[in-house]
Amino acid sequence: MLRSDRSPLLLAGLPAVAVATRFTAPRRFAPIVPRSPPGSPRAWTYASDRRGARAAAGAALPQTRKAAASATAAFFVGVFPAQVTMAVEWSRRPTPQRAAARGRLLLQVPLVLWACGIARGT
Q: What are the CA-CA distances from residue 102 to residues 18, 82, 84, 91, 108 (Å)?
C-alpha cells in the first residue's frame, strides 16, 4: 500500500480514536466544552462523537472519501473551541499537561489542511 493510499485511512483513524476515547470516559471531556453553547456539555460531546464517527467511517471508504474528508476538516474546526477551552483551563496544570493542551491547539491547522488535501484528492 502506497503512502498516499494510507493517508485517508490514517485520517479516518484520528476521529475514530477520539470518539472511542470520549465514549469510554465521557465525564473527562465534558469540562472542556465551552460554556456558551446551549444544552449540556455531555450532549455536545455525544454530538461531536456522532459526527466524528461518521467522518471517520466515510474517510475510510473510497466512495465517500471526498465528502467525508471535507466533513472531517469541518469536525476539526468544530472542536477547536473545546481545544481552546482546554488550553486555557489547563494553564495552571503541570508542564506536561499544559504542553499537551497547547500542542492540541497547534495540531488543528495541519489536521484541517490534511483533511482538505484528501478531499481535493491530493
A: 17, 12, 8, 9, 10
- Grid cell, residue 11, equals 485520517
| Confidence check: pLDDT of 76 > 90 | no
- Size of the chain in residues: 122
Ranges 26-40, 63-77, 84-98: which has the least confidence: 26-40
What span, in angstroms and rounded, lies between the C-alpha atoms of 28 and 62?
34
The C-alpha cell of 117 is what? 488535501
What pLDDT, on a 0 to 100 scale, did the predictor assign at position 2? 44
Which H, E and C letters describe 43-72, residue by residue? HHHHHHHHHHHHHHHHHHCCCCHHHHHHHH
